[in-house]
């Protein structure tokens, strides 16, 4: 009877036994034999003691004391800041912008009287308009002026212009009406040109002339507004920086330590 072989037995017989090869590799490291699972002696020192870090108590005490001193200094600075804020008179401009120059610097005791005398001199140099100028106007009345002032105030509020810009523009209009008779249809043009001029003097980013044409609902072109601006400067003889009510109110409120509410009421409800 002929013998037969199972195919699986034939295949497994051809596979070499690698267990001995693995054992020989594990036993030989760096040319030295060793028993299995023992540490390798590859140049690293055995039984090395762990390093101990000693803390200097004196230095730690100094660091703690310095940290306490720094914390105390920070607390003192915070308390001083709170006291200064409580004693300071905050105006509407300072409330909106923290980077604004403090009033204590603007109205220093050393220069306060000189500034006040200079403002009074400028007031004589730029006389306030006479209240009788409206009698010379044929088409205008005090109601017309109040409507124009309300419109300028709304523009100033919408574009967040300064109080000085608003009061300067009203001052320009009043001085212009002292010398020129204005038709009712051109009165808004005078107001737009006046605030355009005031914005160029007081504002960092004044309203553009095209924007002013839009604010008048395109009743006037940018070219007409610029021509009226030229006429205003000519009639006012380029005296464009008189002291306004806003300037005196700021000094008065700081001198008498009035709050921001009183300052706003004085600026807008006079």
Automatic annotation (TrEMBL):
SUPFAM superfamilies: Cyclin-like (SSF47954). Residues 150-234 form the Cyclin-like domain. One of its GO terms (biological process) is mitotic cell cycle. InterPro entries: Cyclin, Cyclin-like_dom, Cyclin-like_sf, Cyclin_A/B-like, Cyclin_N, Cyclins_cyclin-box. Transmembrane segments: none annotated. GO terms for cellular component: nucleus. PROSITE patterns: CYCLINS (PS00292). Keywords: Cell cycle, Cell division, Cyclin. Belongs to the cyclin family. This is Cyclin-like domain-containing protein. It comes from Hypothenemus hampei (Coffee berry borer).
